Amino acid sequence: MELEVVGVICLVGILWVAGQAWAKKQRRETLMAKYGDAEVVENIMQKKIWQGMSHEQLVESWGSPADTAQKVQRNRIIHTCKYGQTGKNRFNSRVTVENGVVTGWEQK
C-alpha cells in the first residue's frame, strides 16, 4: 500500500516537471515567432531587462507592473512601470519607458 502511494506521488511529480518543461518550450517558440531574435527571447526567458527593449518586451519579461505613472511632455510620453510593491507607493523596481522604449530603471 505504501509503495503504491509513493509510486503515485513520483508519477505526479514527473508529470508536473514534464508539464513545466513543455510550457517553457511552448513559451520560447511563441516568443521566437513573435520577435525572431534568439538573444531577445533568451533574455526575456531569463527575466532580464535592457535599454532599448520595447514596453511589450518588458511586460513579457517581468509581467504587468503593479502600478504605472505617466507624464506627457511636448514630444514624448514617459511611463514609469513599478514592480514589487513593498508598501503604499513603495516599490522595489521602477522602469522608465519613453515613447514605448525602456530607457532606464532603478532597483532597490
Question: Overall mean pLDDT score?
Answer: 91
Largest beta sheet: strand ordering: 1-2-3-4
Helix content: 40-55%
Helix and strand composition category: alpha+beta
Order of helices and strands: HHHEEEE
Number of beta-strand segments: 4
> How many discrete domains?
2
* Tally of alpha and pi helices: 3
Rg over C-alpha atoms, rounded to the nearest angstrom:
19 Å
Task: Report how far the terminal alpha carbons are from each other.
Answer: 52 Å
Low-confidence stretches: none
Approximately what portion of the residues adopt beta-strand conformation? 25-35%
- Could you say which overall geometry the principal axes of the C-alpha atoms support? elongated
**Could you describe the largest sheet, including whether it forms a barrel?**
4 strands, antiparallel
Protein architecture, described:
The chain has 2 domains: 1-46; 50-108, no CATH class. It is 46% helix and 31% strand. It has helices spanning 2-35, 38-45, 55-62; strands at residues 67-72, 77-87, 90-98, 101-107. The longest helix has 34 residues, at 2-35. It is elongated and about 70 Å long. The model has no long low-confidence stretch (mean pLDDT 91).
